[in-house]
Amino acid sequence: MRLATLLTRSLAQELPIGMAAIPLNPGIIHTDMLSISFGEEAANYPYYVTFGKQ
């Protein structure tokens, strides 16, 4: 079983009744940290400010 699935299930057990834990995998998003790690290549990924508007 994938780690993300295990973490989501563990989180779900801690939440109040009626609240759900939904895992999301947005992929790589251009952030300041990505720029530090990837350098100029970070420009190939969507910028975090505009990502949520898609």
Biggest beta-sheet profile: none
- Tell me the series of helices and strands, N- to C-terminal: HHH
* Poorly predicted regions: none
Residues in helix, %: 40-55%
Tell me, briefly, the overall form.
elongated
Query: Gyration radius, to the nearest Å?
Result: 15 Å
Count of runs of 4 or more consecutive helical residues: 3
Tell me, rounded to a whole number, the average pLDDT: 86
Number of strands: 0
Strand content: under 5%
Distance from N terminus to C terminus (CA atoms, Å) equals 30 Å
Q: Name the structural class.
A: mainly alpha
Q: What can you see in these coordinates?
A:
The chain has 54 residues and is an all-alpha fold. The chain has helices at residues 3-14, 32-38, 48-51. The chain contains 3 helices and no strands. The chain is elongated and about 45 Å long. The longest helix is centred in the N-terminal third of the chain and has 12 residues, at 3-14.
Summed up, what is this model?
Helix content is 43%, strand content 0%. With 54 residues, it is mainly α.
Describe this protein with a few key phrases.
54 residues; 3 helices; 43% helix
List the helices and strands and how they pair.
Elements: H1 3-14, H2 32-38, H3 48-51
